[in-house]
Amino acid sequence: MLSKALLRLGASAARHPWRVIAAWLVAATLAVLAAVAFGGRNADSMTAPGLDSQRAAHLIERAGTGQEGMTAQVVVTPLDGAATFFDHDGARTALTRLQTEVRRLPHVLGTSDPAGALDAGGDTAVRGGLVSADGRIAVVRVQYPDQSRLSAEDLDALVDLGDRLRAELPLRIEMGGSLFYAFSDPDGGASELIGLLAAAAILFLAFGSLVAAALPIGMAVFGLTVGVATMTVLARVTDVPTFAPVLGSMVGLGVGIDYALFVLARHREYLARGLDPREAAGRAVATAGRPVVFAGGTVVVSILGLAVANVPFMTVGGLAVSIVVLTMVLASVTLLPAFLGAAGPRLARPGRIGRALRTRRPGRLARRRDPAADAAHAAGWRRWIGHVSRHPVPYAVGAAGLLLTATLPVLGLRVGLPDDGSLPPSRTERRAYDLVTEGFGPGTNGPLVIAADPAGDPGVLDRLVGAVAADPGIASVAPTHVDRATGIATLVVFPTTSPQDKATADTIARLRTDVLPTAIGHGPARAHVGGAAASLSDVGQRTSQRLPVLVAAVLAMSFLLLMLVFRSVLVPLKAVLLNLLSIGAAYGIMVAVFQWGWGGALIGLEATVPIVSFIPMFLFAILFGLSMDYEVFLLSRVREEYLRTGDNGTAIVEGVSGTARIITSAALIMVAVFLSFAVTEDPSTKMFGLGLATAIFIDATVVRMVLVPATMTLLGRTNWWLPKWLDRMLPRGPVGTERHRR
Q: Which PANTHER family does the entry link to (predicted)?
C-alpha cells in the first residue's frame, strides 16, 4: 500500500516537475511571510511544574518585586589601573552618569545604585555587593520585566548604549546577564553555510556531477526554509526555546540531505538500467522512499518522546525540531522527484567536471563517477563484508569491546549548565564574568533567590537569614526585601562557587533539605530556593530522573516498529542493542571532551564544563531516530536479497556492500554538517554538534560495517525468526514483507 502510494506520488511529481517546484516556492514564500507577519520570539523558560524553583518563582511573582523578570549586569572598572571608585571623583561621576543612562532605556524597571552607596560610605557599597572591596570594580544590576514583554531590541539598546559610553567615559564597560542569554543571536548562520558547502563537496565526490550534488542541497534548503519559518510561527503561541532553530537547522540539514541521497542513489541505479527518468524517479521514491518515510517517522516519534520528561521547554523544542524533520520527509517524496524529473537523463552520467576528472584520473575515480559501474565499485566493500562474515567472533567481540570502552566515561557524567566563564574572551559576557569573579567571587555570577512566606511568624525571617548566612556554601546575603501587601520576603544570596560548579548544586540541595526546614520549623511558614542557577539545577535533576523512562519508551517503540517492518524478533533486538552501544560511546566521548578537557582545544573549548542538563535526553531521542535511517536502509536491502536468494550469508554480503557507499557518504555528510556546529562559540551548540557527529560516525562505521554483518552472520537464519502465532497477530508492514521488484 505504501509502496504504491509513493510510486504514484513520485511519478506524478516527476511528470509535472515545474508545478511541484512552483508549489514549494509558494509554500516557502508563504511560510516566510507568515513568520515575518505573525512569528513570535524564541524564549527560554527553563522551568517545569512541581519544581522547588518554580514554587519560588510563584512566590516572587506574588510579591511583585520584579525579581521574576529578566536581568542584566553592567560591570565597570576605571581605565586608569591605579584609580578606584573610592578615591577617583571622575570615575565616580562617570558611574553616576552610566546608571542614569541605563535607567532611561526602554522597559528598564530599575537598577542597583553603586554610586549612591559610595556617597553613603564605601563600607555600605562593599557590604551591598555593589563595589569590590578594593574599590576597582562596580556592578550595576539592571532589572527588566518578564521575557514576554521584551525583545532583542532591548538587548540591542543596552549594547548600543555601552558602545557609546565606552567612547565617552573613562571606564571599561562589560555586560552580561540573562538578557544576553535570552536574546543573543544563536550560533548557526555560518555553521549552516559551512555544513552545506561540505555536503556539496561530498555529494560531488560521490556522484561526479554538479547537478546531482545540487539537487539534495536545493531540496534541503527548501525544506529548512519552510520548517524554520513554521517554527517561528509556532513561537507566537508558545515558548519555543532559543536553541530550537539551531538544533532544527542542524538535524534538518543532516536528515534532509541524507534522505535525498538515498532516493537519488536509487534513481541513478534505475537510470543506469535504461529506465525513463520519470519512471526511474517514481521507482526510486517507491523503494528508497519507504525507508525514508519510516526512518523520518521514527525520528519524529523519538523526539516527541521528550514529552515524558514533563519539562515544557523540552517538549516544545522537540515539537519544533520534529516539524523540520517532517518537512524534510515530505520534500524527499515530492520536491526531490520533481527535481529528478526536471533534470532528465543528465543524472545518468557525470557532469562536465566529473568527466574531466575521470579523463585525467582513470581507473578507480572513473568507476566512482559512473553509476553503471556501481557493482564494480562495490567489490571492495563486498570483500570487506565477506571478510568480516568469515571471522564474525573476533570482529563482534573487538568492536563491542571498543564501544564499551568508549562508553566508560559516562560513569562520570555530570549535568549542569555552562556559565559565561566558558565563553571565549572575545565576548563581553565572558569579560564581565571575569571582572565579577575577580571583584566579588565566582558565586556572584549566579545568585540564588530565596522566597519565603512567613505566614504570620515574625521571627522566621531573622532565623532564615541567620541560618542561610551561616551555611559554608554561602558567601553573602543581600538585604531582605519584604512586600508589605503579601508579607512575602525575598533574599538574594551569593554562593561561594560558580553557577556551573557541582558545589553550587550541593549548596542548593543542602539549603532545601536542611537549612531552610530547620530555620522555619514545623509552622505554616514556607521558603523555596529559586533563581537561574537553582532552576537549571532542578531541570537537570528532572531530566536525569526521566531519562530512563524515555530510553525505555523509545527502545520499546523502535523494537515494535522494526519487528513489524522486518517480520523478525532478533533483527530489531540486535538493532536496539547496537544503537545503544553507539549512543553510549558518543556520551562517553562527550564527557571526555567537555568534562575532562581531552581535545577540547580542537573545537575551541575555553574550559571544562558540565554537560548541559537537557542535552543527554535530546541527543538520545535524536540519535536513536537518526540511527534508524541507516538501520532501515541497510536492512531493507538485506531483506530484499534474502527474499530473492533465500541465503542469509549472501543476503548479508550483498545487502551491506550494496548500501555501504551510500551509508558512508550519508554519514560523511551528517558528520560534516554536525561538526560545523561543534566549532561555534556556544558550549551547548558544541555539545549538540560533537555528540551528533560522533554518534553518526560510530554508527555508520563500527556498527553498520562491522557489528551488523558480524552479528547477523552469527545469528544465521534465525535473524528472520518470528513465531507463527506472532506473525499472525502482526499487521503486514510496509517494508520487506514481499518480494521487491528489481
A: MEMBRANE PROTEIN MJ1562-RELATED, MEMBRANE PROTEIN YDFJ
